[in-house]
Write a structure and sequence with these properties.
By secondary structure, the protein is of the alpha+beta class. It contains 8 helices and 5 strands. The chain folds into 2 domains: 2-95 and 106-146, GIY-YIG endonuclease (3-Layer(aba) Sandwich), CATH 3.40.1440.10; 156-188, no CATH class. The structure holds zinc ion. Residues 161, 163-164, 176, 182, 185 line the site of zinc ion.
């Protein structure tokens, strides 16, 4: 099954990021928006932070990658890797469905689970990483081919960074938000 991994950025608050996965990116984006006003969800770290920082207007959601996964365990592992890699701050609950019997500290439990997996199955893990890299490259190439036209239009889409007082291509916003020049402008 195809799983898509995405990242949520708060455009004016680059310190907040969230990594998620879905089988339907378009639908998931809409769901996130809806959850901002869902009384049962507004206390989740993600929605609380968004609501306290400019709401939906401040949200940028971008697809990171997608791939074929035949079991959820691999999806959680990949999510965990992306959370670590992007130093995601709003993933209050880390991949949670690996094992229902985890302790009072799910964060610690999952970190340990992931480490154990790496230690106990080094060959499997390395093989998987290698396979993933190849697969990701192939998917990326294929995706770009399939979305060429749409991407060309998207490339021309501009957004404003009020902090730096410049206009820039929307697709470059993630990088911009992490750039030295932008960070320098945030600091007093
Ligand atoms: Zn900026």
């Amino acid at each position: 099954m195809k799983y898509e991994f995405y990242k949520i950025n708060l455009m004016k608050n680059p310190e907040y990021t969230y990594i998620g996965y879905t089988t339907n990116f378009t639908k998931r984006k809409y769901q996130h928006k809806k959850n901002l006003t869902d009384i049962s969800k507004i206390n989740f770290p993600l929605y609380k932070t968004i609501n306290e920082n400019g709401g939906w207007e401040n949200v940028y959601i971008g697809l990171l990658e997608y791939g074929e996964y035949d079991n959820l365990k691999d999806v959680y592992i990949r999510e965990r890797e992306l959370i670590d890699f992007h130093k995601s701050t709003l993933n209050g609950h880390l991949p949670s469905k690996i094992d229902i019997n985890y302790s009072d500290n799910p964060k610690e439990y999952k970190a340990k689970w992931f480490q154990d997996y790496k230690n106990n199955n080094p060959d499997e893990y390395n093989e998987k990483v290698k396979k993933d890299n190849v697969m990701r490259k192939e998917y990326k190439a294929k995706w770009h081919q399939e979305n060429k036209e749409r991407l060309n239009i998207k490339r021309k889409e501009l957004v404003r960074c009020d902090i730096c007082n410049i206009e820039l291509a929307k697709y470059s916003l993630w990088h911009h938000n992490k750039s030295k020049s932008h960070i320098k402008n945030i600091l007093p």
